[in-house]
UniProtKB/TrEMBL annotation:
Top-level division of the source organism's lineage: Bacteria
Protein name, entry field: DUF2357 domain-containing protein
A Pfam family hit: PDDEXK_7
Positions of the DUF2357 domain: 75-327
Length: 554
């Protein structure tokens, strides 16, 4: 029998992926793993190709003449990948494989939360800036970034599940309307409806003898009888809005595919291949959304703007409430937001986590000091086409009361810097630096280094060397020629939830790094920043960092 299986090289676990795919347990296919695809029962196996995201993967020597073997490693990839099996003489077989983050990291839900909050923080901080442009409408001549498209694709499957649940049990509107019917078709008309119909209709005289009409009608009957009919309708305002949103998203994806196809004339070969792949994916996603837009609740409803109003239905019905949340995510995904962080696949979790930490801390600063203290002029670049670029390289943002947050600030060798501050070994770029403007001007060296590590469990032990390096190697040369360290404290930022004991000496690693006494005593350790945490929680973490490092309030 012709079949394609995937097997884990380490555990030897095996699942069929085509046809009739098996249910693969969550976490079984994960980044950094290594897997074999095994095709069996094909006389054309030697000429068969297997493509992952439109790129052919490594073929191995097969154990039999009717078999084919390929090796695949997802690398730093977590999400949905498109696979295509090309057997000569038959149409391509396409299927999807879901890869999870490494088991030492977080789940796909946490990963999606992180991306959502990056985009949400971008809008929140942009609204506090001096720029005034409608970036949320998503209109831009630039091709959409890969990260935005991957984020949108991750929402489509959930969207289909929600619409299926709504179609099974949709909200309906019960109403009554008055309909005029010829007297011979109004068999179920009530006496009151017949009497009311005399007011607006032409009366007819009965010619039959004896009369079959009630005596009270005296031989007359309205030619048209107006009766009230009860209607069970799907034409709700919510269904009109939802249908309009679905049609708009499908249109946006088709327009994105057109824009990507226009970009095929220039650029590197790899970039053109990526553009071709994503143009095709956008059209497939548009077709999937168009199909669910034809479901009965939306097809029977009228037209409305592509905008949801938070009504009682969206607040109280679980399925409609889920659709409202996905609508918010889709709006973030299609907005005209650009930046270097969006040019890489979402699966490169460590890069996104670094940016997520920075934006969350900046927004926490507005919560702590008020929005009037925030200066974001260096953070955004707005263009005339309506796009917004998030500048994420060597950015400094003032958050108030003399405090600054720096993202990926570069420290070169100290003898090359005008202020004589830098590294005594090589150029270094911490993820986030918290610095007091007043102490910086006095050159007293009060500076807190925060190194974001998207790791949990034992992976945090391996990350300790980075903050040791920052604390020891960043220095300043005094006028006398003496060199002293400028790092007040150094901490890891990680999504890890520690188990703390009463004494840090009895607490196991890596939880020991998060112990308050350990952090405060050594001005060294780790702080939990986890996707999904509220701004209040992030602000509390920022206060703890500064309190531990400076022995005083922020």
């Amino acid at each position: 029998m012709l079949a394609l299986h995937i097997a884990d090289e380490t555990t030897r676990s095996r699942w069929r992926v085509w046809p009739d795919p098996d249910s693969i347990p969550p976490g079984a296919i994960h980044e950094k793993g290594s897997y074999h695809f095994e095709l069996s029962g094909s006389p054309e196996a030697v000429n068969t190709d297997l493509l992952i995201d439109d790129l052919a993967i490594e073929a191995l020597r097969a154990p039999g003449p009717d078999m084919a073997l390929w090796r695949w490693s997802p690398g730093f990839h977590a999400g949905v990948v498109d696979a295509e099996l090309r057997i000569p003489g038959s149409s391509p077989r396409r299927f999807e494989i879901i890869t999870d983050p490494d088991r030492r990291k977080l789940t796909r839900d946490d990963f999606d939360s992180m991306v959502r909050e990056i985009l949400d923080d971008t809008f929140a901080l942009f609204s506090l800036s001096s720029f005034r442009t409608a970036v949320a409408r998503g209109a831009s001549a630039k091709p959409p970034a890969i990260a935005r498209l991957e984020f949108l694709r991750s929402r489509i499957e959930e969207l289909e599940e929600i619409v299926t649940a709504i179609v099974r049990n949709p909200r309906r509107r019960l109403s009554a309307e008055e309909v005029a019917l010829p007297y011979h078709r109004a068999q179920r008309a009530t006496g009151l409806e017949v009497l009311r119909s005399f007011r607006s209709g032409r009366p007819l005289a009965e010619s039959a003898k004896p009369s079959r009409l009630p005596a009270a009608l005296r031989g007359f009957l309205p030619a048209q009888i107006r009766i009230r009919q009860r209607l069970n309708s799907l034409d709700l305002a919510e269904h009109r809005q939802m249908g309009a949103c679905l049609r708009y998203w499908a249109s946006w994806l088709n327009a994105a595919a057109d824009t990507l196809e226009r970009e095929l004339t220039g650029g590197e070969v790899d970039q053109r291949q990526i553009a071709v792949a994503w143009a095709a994916r956008c059209r497939r996603l548009a077709r999937r959304i168009s199909r669910i837009a034809t479901a009965a609740p939306f097809a029977e409803a009228g037209d409305a703007p592509a905008h949801l109003m938070l009504s009682a239905v969206f607040r109280h019905d679980p399925n409609y409430r889920r659709f409202y949340r996905v609508w918010q995510d889709m709006n973030l995904g299609i907005a005209a937001v650009f930046g270097d962080f969006l040019r890489v696949p979402l699966a490169r979790t460590y890069e996104l986590y670094e940016l997520w930490c920075f934006l969350r801390l900046v927004r926490a600063g507005t919560h702590e000091f008020g929005p009037s203290s925030l200066e974001t002029s260096n953070l955004f670049i707005a263009d005339a086409a309506g796009g917004l670029t998030l500048a994420t390289g060597a950015v400094t943002v003032s958050i108030g009361r003399g405090w600054k947050l720096c993202f990926q600030k570069q420290y070169r060798e100290f003898w090359k810097e005008p202020d004589a501050q830098g590294s005594f070994s090589r150029s270094m770029t911490p993820d986030v630096v918290v610095i007091s403007e007043s102490t910086a001007a006095e050159h007293t060296g009060q500076l807190i280094v925060l190194d974001a590590k998207y790791r949990i469990d034992e992976g945090l032990n391996d990350a300790l060397s980075s903050i040791h390096t920052y604390r020891d190697a960043l220095v300043q040369e005094a006028a006398t020629g003496d060199v002293k360290g400028i790092v007040t404290a150094a901490y890891l930022l990680a999504p890890y939830l520690p188990v703390l004991g009463s004494d840090y000496r009895r607490t196991q690693m890596p939880s020991r790094l998060f112990h308050p006494e350990y952090r405060k005593g050594f001005r060294f350790g780790a702080v939990t920043l986890r996707p999904g945490a509220s701004i209040i929680e992030i602000a509390a973490a920022l206060r703890r960092v500064v309190d531990d490092a400076t022995a005083g309030p922020i």
